[in-house]
Fold each of these.
Amino acid sequence: MSPEDFRRHGHAVVDWIADYLGGVETHPVLSRVAPGSIRDALPTSPPTHAESVETMLADLDRVIMPGITHWQSPNFFAYFPCNASGPSILGEMLSAGLGIQGMLWATSPACTELETHVLDWLVEMLDLPTFFRSDGEGGGVIQDTASSATLCALLAARDRATGWRSNEHGLTGGPPLVAYASTEAHSSMEKAMAIAGLGRANLRLVEVDERFAMRPQALAERIAADRADGRLPIFCCANIGSTSSTAIDPLGPIGEVCRREGMWLHVDAAMCGTAALCPEFRWIHKGIEHADSYCFNPHKWMFVNFDCDCFWVRNRADLVRTLSVLPEYLRNEATASGKVVDYRDWQIPLGRRFRALKLWMTIRHYGVAGLQRAIRDHVSWARWFADRVRDDDRFELVVEPPASLVCFRLRSSDDANERMLAALNATGELMLSHTRLEGRYTLRFSVGATLATKGHVERAWRAIESAATGIG
Ligand SMILES: *Cc1c(COP(=O)(O)O)cnc(C)c1O
């Protein structure tokens, strides 16, 4: 494809995206296709001869679009948002256009330096401890997802706890290593235990309180029991915004336990970290000074399209020692000088995308004040929705919403709640998801789509009210 042809097709693709976002509300939010139907519409074998972009775009509309669930719809209230934005999409396009691979500083200095710089900006924006900044012993890096951040933190904690013997010789000899998270922690913690060779069975799920936040006392008791059994506690993952209900684990008391026990404290703020852009929500980070590492996902609630997780460590030497490699073919003068950051040593894969561009462009487009305004809107609309639930005898609020997610249910059986959710999502007019809290089926109404307005939230409430009438 010549640069001139690319220009022509590129304009068509931008038009396509702009039309899509402009009309995203016209699609049923949840895709209605049956399993296998997209593949059935595709040719069995790949084309022998070149095909035109026009044909491909026509097939995008005809074959692919029916199988899309519209995460960018303002009527998408399921899971957590994955809220893209114009400036972020443009940043993603530029990253693809440059086509660089940023494994080393030397393989594109701007890729590394912009990333370090924007992550220092974010320390200021979220009012995180200054030890996370790159000008001290810490520093930030962009990971694909929070799952990877948690895994990297666990690996560094594992190696630090064994004096880096595990890094060299594997986990031979020594006591079993154990890690802790609450019963509400994200499933990525369990996966990380399996991948890190620590074993799923060595993850302790600590009891939570009536707001689904970890009980520090229960954590201390679990640790004491493990020590009594000859195990070595090494790691605790605290959630700032659990996945089911955005519960906020108390970092102060948890951090004190971790410090006393010599354990690594990782803070997973995937969804709710973004709220700390606003001073009035910074209480969620109370006690953060105890953290060894922290992550949040701009790809959830900060208008940066997937994927973009920001991950900071208090002491970058721990992470780099755990993950660094230096084969001959990657040796270069800049690395040898010790004056540069090589992000291949801060993550699992070697290669890496230029993700900082979309983050930088998004922050510059909105400005900190614009981002704060959006977060405040989302939280206030969620509170409005929670008030409607509270005022309606047919429903109950399962827990006071700390941020932009409302967990609620019909005062009825699990089955009735499940049927109501299915009925709502089948209308195509909106989409919610569910979880289980205290063993009971619970509906999740999560605000945060880029295109959402108060009006969309009001319409969603009306739809939910009438669905409740239908279920009876
Ligand atoms: C969403 C979420 C994750 C997983 O996010 P990925 O970035 O997709 O790995 C991890 N932890 C918490 C608390 C989450 O809410």
Amino acid sequence: MVISSHIFMSTLHHLILIFFISLLGTSSYLQLIKPISCTKGPIFKCSEVEKAALLGFKYNLTDPSGRLSSWVGEDCCNWLGVGCDNSTRNVVKLDLRNPFSWFDDFDQYNKSCLGGKINSSLLDLKHLSYFDLSLNNFNGTNIPKFLGSLENLRYFNLSFSMFSGVIPPHLGNLSRLQYLDLNSNGFYPTLNQVESLEWVVGFPSLKYLGMDYVNLEKVPDWLHAINVLPSLRELHLASCGLISLPSSISSINFTLLSVLDLSGNDFSTSIPQWLSHLTNLRSLNLGGNNLIGEITEFVDGLSQCSNSSSEDGNLPSMQEIDLSFNQLNGTIPKNIGKLSRLVSLDLSGNSWEGNLTEAHFQNLTWLKSLKLYVEGYAKATLVLDVKHDWVPPFKLTEIELANVRIGPNFPAWLKTQIELNYLALENVGISC
Ligand SMILES: *[C@@H]1O[C@H](CO)[C@@H](O)[C@H](O)[C@H]1NC(C)=O
Ligand SMILES: *[C@@H]1O[C@H](CO)[C@@H](O)[C@H](O)[C@H]1NC(C)=O
Ligand SMILES: *[C@@H]1O[C@H](CO)[C@@H](O)[C@H](O)[C@H]1NC(C)=O
Ligand SMILES: *[C@@H]1O[C@H](CO)[C@@H](O)[C@H](O)[C@H]1NC(C)=O
Ligand SMILES: *[C@@H]1O[C@H](CO)[C@@H](O)[C@H](O)[C@H]1NC(C)=O
Ligand SMILES: *[C@@H]1O[C@H](CO)[C@@H](O)[C@H](O)[C@H]1NC(C)=O
Ligand SMILES: *[C@@H]1O[C@H](CO)[C@@H](O)[C@H](O)[C@H]1NC(C)=O
Ligand SMILES: *[C@@H]1O[C@H](CO)[C@@H](O)[C@H](O)[C@H]1NC(C)=O
Ligand SMILES: *[C@@H]1O[C@H](CO)[C@@H](O)[C@H](O)[C@H]1NC(C)=O
Ligand SMILES: *[C@@H]1O[C@H](CO)[C@@H](O)[C@H](O)[C@H]1NC(C)=O
Ligand SMILES: *[C@@H]1O[C@H](CO)[C@@H](O)[C@H](O)[C@H]1NC(C)=O
Ligand SMILES: *[C@@H]1O[C@H](CO)[C@@H](O)[C@H](O)[C@H]1NC(C)=O
């Protein structure tokens, strides 16, 4: 009897011990102690003012798929898309990017679009630094001027969100901005325009400016306006209706520029020399303009940069050149073969002539994509003149050649291209 009662007591102790251990391991234990320990400790919830600001913002939005249905309850820091500073619990991030895009899954995208109006209660988010509304559908309404008062914004993405009208110069008040993405795809009703770009002077730290498909016809001096941005790394002004690409520029401020996309505009000059002085440029995309003339000086300029920088141990940075569908002509200069970092070269849709030799490809060890469709079916004016046992320095994944004579014999060098997953040859003069 005594023995069994002793066993009973020790089992009970054991159980109580297990009970405490399991309490220690759960969050309910933490919640038990929170009211006592957090009086002067960290803050656990977002502020009432910021919560009200978010609810006001939600109030005027349309949300057919219920993406904001988690926006209920005490702590707005737990709401979907809302990010708070870990110590102050201020709302610093609002990521409401549509998780679907029209090109992946149109129906899902269409269902998941937020829309409606933007309530100015948003201005109560005084600490907001990251705001992404991309891929939603604001159905052609204007970008509200008051967004220019979200003065802590560093990242602002309204791309593909179907705003239209004049982009308010008030955005120029966002002096801390590093990323401004207003790209669109030009689908109706997205017709944004800009009447002057002088307001970009307000962005001393801007690294990324995206305005694809924004109408800049009224801004002939766009380059001078952009030239006040010393921190710029990426500039996207594709299909903006630009007509003037100045042949000279007194001094370049955006020397850190690494990606420049000016495709689909209406430039009808030759390629300006200052472009080859941008020594950090790794992607130039000038396709679909009406650029004329030869590219020899431009390519020589690029390869000279690389020549001088090889000496101090740096490689040329250019990785991607797209000059497709312009009215360029003449020969393709040998110095293109010195751009040793080149990964993608698209010279299609121009009127090239002359011979391409081994030298044209000498240092292109990283090249993966080569596109060379020459205008003019009748006369093959461009000839690939390489030895029959040429072993190219590259392993391409993509080759597109048209109206370039590589025959009449089957080109043996093609057999060395063992990584190919796309090969298109048209009118290349191979007789079989
Ligand atoms: C913002 O939303 C609130 C509802 O939370 C509404 O009462 C108010 O009128 C809206 N403000 C504006 C400026 O539309
Ligand atoms: C906040 O905390 C989360 C989770 O611990 C962490 O992933 C995140 O990096 C932190 N954010 C900052 C800004 O420190
Ligand atoms: C997108 O969905 C809405 C209904 O939510 C529909 O009225 C509209 O026609 C759809 N848009 C397109 C382009 O299919
Ligand atoms: C938000 O909705 C309220 C009530 O319908 C309306 O009075 C207000 O004007 C709306 N705000 C905006 C910015 O459209
Ligand atoms: C802005 O959003 C789009 C679409 O969600 C995205 O593809 C793009 O990379 C974003 N821009 C920046 C600068 O992050
Ligand atoms: C979108 O805008 C068009 C034209 O302004 C209008 O007819 C249509 O009702 C709007 N759709 C929504 C959902 O507001
Ligand atoms: C914001 O910018 C606009 C237009 O550039 C200007 O008129 C306005 O005074 C600025 N507002 C503030 C608060 O700086
Ligand atoms: C370069 O940028 C600075 C700062 O924005 C500006 O003051 C200067 O005028 C710019 N230089 C040129 C040549 O535009
Ligand atoms: C590159 O540098 C070498 C040696 O310094 C020089 O001989 C050559 O002419 C340079 N090439 C170009 C294209 O400047
Ligand atoms: C290239 O085109 C220009 C006109 O755009 C013409 O003046 C020039 O003669 C052409 N050069 C060659 C080599 O065909
Ligand atoms: C280019 O290739 C030649 C030999 O093919 C080599 O000697 C030279 O170092 C290469 N230059 C660069 C910049 O890669
Ligand atoms: C171009 O190559 C062909 C042989 O394919 C040769 O007959 C011709 O002389 C070459 N032209 C030049 C300018 O080197």
Amino acid sequence: MSLVDPRSVEFACSPKREPTFVRGSMATLWDEDGNEYIDCGASFGVGNLGHCNPAVVEAIQQQARDLIHVGPTFGTKAKAEFTDKLLSIAPTGLGRVFLSNSGSEAVEAALKFARAATGRKTIIAAMRGFHGRTMGALSATWRRDFREPFEPLVPGFEHVPYNDIAALEAAVDERTAAVILEAVQGEGGVHVATTEYLPAARDVCDRAGALLIIDEIQTGMGRTGRMFAIERWNVKPDIVTLAKSLAGGVPIGATLTTEAVERAFQGSHNSTFGGNPIACAAGTAAIDYAVRERLWARAEKLGAMALVGLRGLKAPSVREVRGLGLMIGIELRGKAAPVLQALQDEGVIAIGGGSSVIRLLPPLVIPEDQWSFALDALGRALRHG
Ligand SMILES: *Cc1c(COP(=O)(O)O)cnc(C)c1O
């Protein structure tokens, strides 16, 4: 029996992968035949807290009994609590938050805030960058095959090479509303910003009067060994976008910004479901759990252990191992798909990042024995690959 409904068209860029999952608990997934898998993809970073984390399940159940939805016209206790909690851990200087339902929506809000606050039109993004699939977010996304069938996209977007300060200086001027960057490019294959790049981006923006948007949708919530990756660069962005694991697996998006941007913003923006009580209750529980368990510290420790092990393999099939915390990319000389399949045959789920990169984004709660098993399985697959 297959649970995949043939009538449900997903328009994914690759065929849907087997197996079909029915249950999850922390880093473990079970398929419909009862097979067990270690999840080292965490749905592209949604699962930092693991599957069905009991703290999140409990909060959702309680909130579902109290109040499922009241729209943005009125306040709810769940939203007020979540907003306070989020701002209490936010990167310094960010005291305002707009809530939505996905990463793309968080980016759309960021782009609209930047244009409406500066009165300028141009957005500078990076080559290999990924910011989502809606028309505005897609305009900031680099990959040609994601963009081309839907053109014309939103005008005013330009892409510069990542980690190239001179190119950024040349592109940003008095017409630039914002620069949007990831601190670690995720979908682009795990490329980490250099020590100088993000501070330089801040300087370039300041000199031109442009805003700096940091997209932490994949890097946030402890993934890179800090609660937010930008903390490592000691840079204050004007806007930060969050989503993926922010509410422990429940759909959510958040756009954090400064009071200065809020004051300068001319216009209106809103969302019917944004800030809905279920997502907010899950989000409050998720942040409490991440802080209590110091998930960023686990990411730092388990990530460092993996980088040493993977670099030590010296497998001829591997071109480069990159990473920060539990965001790890293994660039191969050949295709990633056969290695991903070999891993899956051993009960380990990993994901790609471009055609030749294997990406590991395990739940930050993964037990050390499961993480070691996954890395050993990867070692075997790489040596034979
Ligand atoms: C996943 C992702 C997005 C888009 O999020 P969706 O929830 O899929 O819309 C945007 N930016 C980055 C960096 C991402 O990793």
Amino acid sequence: MTVSPTARLPTLAVHADGDLRATAEVVAPIGVSTTFSYAQGDIKASNYGVDQHYHYARIGTPATAKAEAVLGALTEGHAVIYGSGLTAAFSVLVEHRPRKIALGEAYFGVRNVVEQYRRLVPNVQVVGIDCAYDGVDMVWLESPVNPSGEVRDIRSYALRAHAAGAILVVDATLAPPPLSYPFRQGADVVVHSATKYLGGHSDLLAGVVVARSARVADSLREARAVLGTGSGSLETWLLLRSLRTLAVRVRQQSQTAARLVALVESYRRSAVATSCHVPSAQQLALGRHIAAVRHASLQLCAAGCSFIQAQHPDGFGAVFSVTFATSEQARFVAQRLRLHRFATSIGGVESLVDWRYGWDATSEPGLLRVSVGLEAFDDLAADWAQALRALDEHERKAGAKL
Ligand SMILES: *Cc1c(COP(=O)(O)O)cnc(C)c1O
């Protein structure tokens, strides 16, 4: 590496692929070729920079090598890129062939992938993540959890998994580096939907598996070359481009989200009457319809929450949820928010709000998932205030008609 391996994350994001540079261009060129000329007389010899040889895009491309070098440096493992987050998840299952999976709360698409795997491999059992681990050979944990943004204790699941002889897979899509490093808490494999924060601009679909072991990563790459499950050349280039700014984007999104969570939660609390507090009309208008706000920063834990700080030394994820009493109220607010676009997905530079029940029948009907983008906090705060006031007005009018 032309950059010291002890360099900090923002530096690695810009320079970790320095050794793979083969041209004078400072920015990696967009390469769309699916095939590469053999070096003269030897189809195995380098034909691209130093020690690099490429034949055919299904097997590997210069952009994939660069993006994997950067991702591996940032995530502290060996990265393998796929065409989507769910292809990455499926590839982990096929690689490890678990017979009994302990599955925690997980994005509905991941649960579908596990179902797909079960259909293909007979007699696979799936149990809850807090069940006994006898016979369990893979534990699949999502942290932070989509859609609540709450954090789970990776270290405690790693200890339990390893004691049972199982591997721990962590889907860390909602907290990419520099917000979390699951290998430090004992994860064996980390999965990200790169469509979210790693891509960061809602303009590419990709996924990544990061293995602690180089051997596992090589085996994943071999299977990827056979199947062609990698990401397309333009998407891979966009991903590499986005990784350069990962640290500043994600830190800013994390900080804005923490302030927005505190604000919306303060609206909810101020609307609750107690023996010491009589809510004003203004406080009731803003907060009386909010049933719950969930995020790592508000999380209560039975056994203490010190693991949350330990897992997130640099801040929490930028996804949180706001629950209303009814699905109608949730959808009203989603449509009234102006800067938060009403659309699915997370992790982009634009704030998004999604009504998860529309996708996932196991979600609460009144829940909105919020993905905080890079807009100024004051503008996002004003957006929430106007949407909540509009809801209150709407509810008052509806009440008056009855
Ligand atoms: C979006 C998401 C995925 C799936 O990724 P795709 O890139 O959409 O295939 C997996 N896990 C989590 C937590 C996600 O949010």
